Amino acid sequence: MGFIFNAGTKIVCGSGSKPVLNAVSILRRDMDKVFLESVCENEIVLENDASADDESYEISVGGNVTVRAGGDLGFVYALLYISERYLGIKPFWFWLNQKIEKKESVPIDEGVIKSKKYAVRYRGWFFNDEVLMLKWKVNGDEREVWRMAFEALLRCGGNMTIPGTDKMSRKNRQMAADMGLWITHHHAEPLGAEMFARRYTGVDASFTEHPEMFYELWDEAAREQKDCKVVWNLCFRGQGDKPFWGDDKSGRFDTPEKRGALISEVMAKQRGLVEKYVEDPVFCTNLYGEIMELYEAGHIKLDDDIIKVHADNGYGKMVTRRRDSHNVRVSSMPKKDGGRQGIYYHVSFYDLQAANHITMLPNSVDFVNRELDAVLENNGDDFWIINCSNVKPHAYFLDAVRKKWEGSDVSDETHSAEFTRDYYGADENVRRVFTEYPKSLLSYGENDDEKAGEQFYTENARVLAHSLIRADFDGAGGLKWIADGTLFEQAKTLLNICFNGIGALEVYFDLCRSVSGGLEGDNKRLFDETLFLQAKIHYYCAKGLIALCESVIKFGDGNYRDAFLLAGDSAALYDTANGEMRTSESGIWHGFYANDCFADIKHSAYMARKMMGTIREYGDNARHDTWQRDATYSKEDRDVFLLLLTDNHMTDDELYKIMREK
């Protein structure tokens, strides 16, 4: 006969731990979302199985349901499996506004369901660059934002997190632990300790001068987390995610050998501090930036049991990241004989150049699948930490990575179909929008991963505007990674990149507009607030950068009026993109994009307007009456100067609007 899952079903767990009780609470909440009136009384009983490992479970279905597990995460995963399999609650139900279907009951056939082993041992999300989540609240509760984030991670089979950046990681640490997650740390925060510069304000962050202060911070971090499950990050970088020798004035670390020797010594001492408080601790170290270079050169010595974490370049490619104009693209792929290994992988990135933060990864699911397959083939299966930033814009790729750490293959075709089925009503046109996305974005380089996220249009625009305002016409240092020469030559290079790609982007924008027009109700709202919104961000911001580049070029030619108008056009386009973000914030999402301070589309509009003002100073006269007279006076009055002006002086915006109308 099986089991009738209904509102009368009780969950019996005795005196469970915090993670188990939290999972019980989630399942009960989900039952309340789905079930109508009680049909019958029965039980889901939780029983400990000392022979099972921490994450495995077995669900036996008869007149009642018995869940046996060896540890907290086994019970958590089992209860969330029941929620998804029988109640239909998907991993990103909250983040994608899943409409929950009401039911009287759900029959579950008799039998036994056993958990599968994950392909990756430690797997989770790094809530990095999480600026949208810092000020947004759910029904007035800032903590609910993080509860929903950690719940989504658990629903995806994650077991580990860096629960925020800097202060947020320590603020959220206990909540994450109470929900059953392992804690690990930012690659610039040894053992998850407080940053030296924050604790010892005004003191030089020099290890040679103040080693005891560093040891105090690390010892405190070990004591604070000794009762949590932790993958301890051993590392030594400077303040602000940079090499330590930049903060050291002694001059002692002027060679790679000396730098590597100190890092090796410090990590050994950090390990000893942890081992004072924790039995059989797990350690990792991030081979990131300069640490990777020193390790590859043999200057850093690591114990065999330390998990070596390799990083992609921020665009999903397992090569070293670009820093300023330095882009050597050395492979960062784990090595088959490299011992315990893992990856730090980005579906969101912030690099002040071309990365994606509020839009999806600009590369394909096929591309991600190939890279992660290669990671697994090279024994990089001990540790995956995925940069998820603010979750919502990146749910599509986070779900793809979930399937990879479960041990499945993914592709653009299969994943788009499954994701669309789960959240967008299985609409074939929506599925097509997902698969066309990576094909439609601007390419700024020769490599397959060099596709533009929204920062390409926003950060580089602000660098252009800043340089013109300061009259740095010899060339902007911040643009040398993509374009050399004078400022006007740099603007032409950026313009050519945009011109080469804007056609495909416009076709994609029109596709999204067409698909939106064919949808109704909740499906239309979700599509407009996710996929269509991201298309609008790309399209309007790309057009904004085109207008700004054209403005700079016109300025260089001495055509100040056209330059002024084009800068105004640019500001208006960035305003449009920002407005689309803000109008997409329906329901609980009100205020989600308010703290967009990385891509900061609204600030790009602000900088374009500042540039307008500068251009006006070159083209108008000191009294600011020539352009206003030309724009507002009739031909017969324009050359009569008995009264210089008959109206108040116009602001740049007021003058732009009238000049553009004409």
Walk me through this protein's architecture.
The protein is of the alpha/beta class and 662 residues long. It folds into 3 domains: 3-114, Chitobiase/beta-hexosaminidase domain 2-like (Chitobiase, domain 2, 2-Layer Sandwich); 122-409, Glycosyl hydrolase family 115 (TIM Barrel, Alpha-Beta Barrel), CATH 3.20.20.520; 455-619. 46% of the residues lie in helices and 10% in strands. It has 22 helices and 15 strands. The protein has helices at 18-34, 72-87, 132-135, 142-155, 167-178, 196-199, 211-225, 256-277, 290-296, 365-377, 395-406, 412-423, 428-440, 455-469, 487-517, 521-529, 531-556, 560-583, 601-619, 626-632, 635-638, 652-661, and strands spanning 3-6, 9-12, 42-48, 57-61, 65-69, 105-108, 111-114, 122-126, 160-162, 182-183, 231-233, 282-287, 307-311, 341-346, 383-387. The strands form 3 sheets. An 8-stranded parallel β-sheet has the order 10-9-8-15-14-13-12-11. A 5-stranded mixed β-sheet has the order 2-3-5-4-7, covered by helices on one side. Strand 4 and strand 5 form a beta hairpin. Helix 18 packs antiparallel against helix 19. The chain is globular. The mean pLDDT is 95.
Q: What is the CATH C level class of the largest domain, in words?
A: Alpha Beta
Can you summarize the main beta sheet?
A: 8 strands, parallel
What gross morphology would you assign? Answer: globular
Number of strands: 15
CATH topology of the largest domain: TIM Barrel
Helix content: 40-55%
Helix count from the secondary structure assignment: 22
The CATH architecture term of the largest domain is Alpha-Beta Barrel
